[in-house]
# Entry
Amino acid sequence: MIRFLFNFVIFGVLFYAIYLLFPDAFKTLVSWADSLYGIIRDLGLWVYSRLQDFRKEHVAPLEAPKALLLPLFYLIKTR
# Structure
């Protein structure tokens, strides 16, 4: 846990130094991070939409047989 906090502070200082000393390099890093985030977000949305399409095509709605529901109704009525 302490190692994580130490690394968090060190990377914060590092990126702040890059921001102050090399603003063009910092803008490049930010644009790369934004592009990577956009790619991962679009990939996640694509996978989600494909899964939704797959579920719509291949999964039929479940229908409970009446024989299984009758004992349940009986238990509810007797209470």
The chain has a mean pLDDT of 83.
